[in-house]
C-alpha cells in the first residue's frame, strides 16, 4: 500500500491503515478526516488489492472521484494506465485533470459516453423539456 500511496501522492502523504479484528475492521487515514482523503484512501486500497492479487479487473465510477483533488485524480490515472490488468473507470470533464491525464484517458479509452451516445438502447434518464435557445425566444 505504501508504494501505491507514494506513486499516487508522493512521500509526504501518509498511508491509510487497515486494522482487522475478529468482528470488526477500521480503515483510517491519520490526521486528515476530509471526504476527499477518505475517497482517495478507498481508491488506493482498491488499487493495492488489485495489484497484489489475481483480481483481473477493477471498476471505479465517477462518484468516487468527485471529492478527490484534480491533481490526485491525475496521479490515479497514471496508476491505472501502468497496470497490465483491465481498469474500468468513469470520469467526467477529463480536461480538468490536466493535459497528460486527459491524453492518457483518450488514448486508452474503449468507450466514451455522452448525451447523444448512451450505453443502452433505452435512455433511462428522465425526460426533460428542451432548453430554449436564443433563436426560439
TrEMBL record:
InterPro entries: DUF2326. Pfam families: DUF2326 (PF10088). Residues 22-115 form the DUF2326 domain. It comes from the Bacteria. This is DUF2326 domain-containing protein. It comes from Xanthomonas citri pv. fuscans. The lineage of its organism: Bacteria, Pseudomonadati, Pseudomonadota, Gammaproteobacteria, Lysobacterales.
Amino acid at each position: 500500500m505504501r508504494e501505491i500511496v507514494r506513486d499516487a501522492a508522493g512521500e509526504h502523504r501518509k498511508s491509510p491503515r487497515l486494522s482487522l479484528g475478529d468482528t470488526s475492521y477500521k480503515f483510517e487515514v491519520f490526521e486528515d478526516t476530509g471526504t476527499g482523503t477518505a475517497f482517495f484512501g478507498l481508491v488506493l486500497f482498491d488499487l493495492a488489492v488489485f495489484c497484489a492479487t489475481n483480481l483481473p479487473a477493477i471498476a471505479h465510477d465517477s462518484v468516487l472521484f468527485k471529492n478527490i483533488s484534480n491533481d490526485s485524480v491525475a496521479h490515479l490515472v497514471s496508476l491505472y494506465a501502468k497496470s497490465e490488468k483491465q481498469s474500468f473507470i468513469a470520469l467526467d470533464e477529463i480536461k480538468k485533470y490536466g493535459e497528460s491525464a486527459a491524453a492518457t484517458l483518450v488514448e486508452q479509452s474503449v468507450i466514451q459516453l455522452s448525451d447523444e451516445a448512451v450505453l443502452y438502447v433505452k435512455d433511462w434518464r428522465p425526460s426533460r423539456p428542451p432548453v430554449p435557445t436564443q433563436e426560439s425566444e
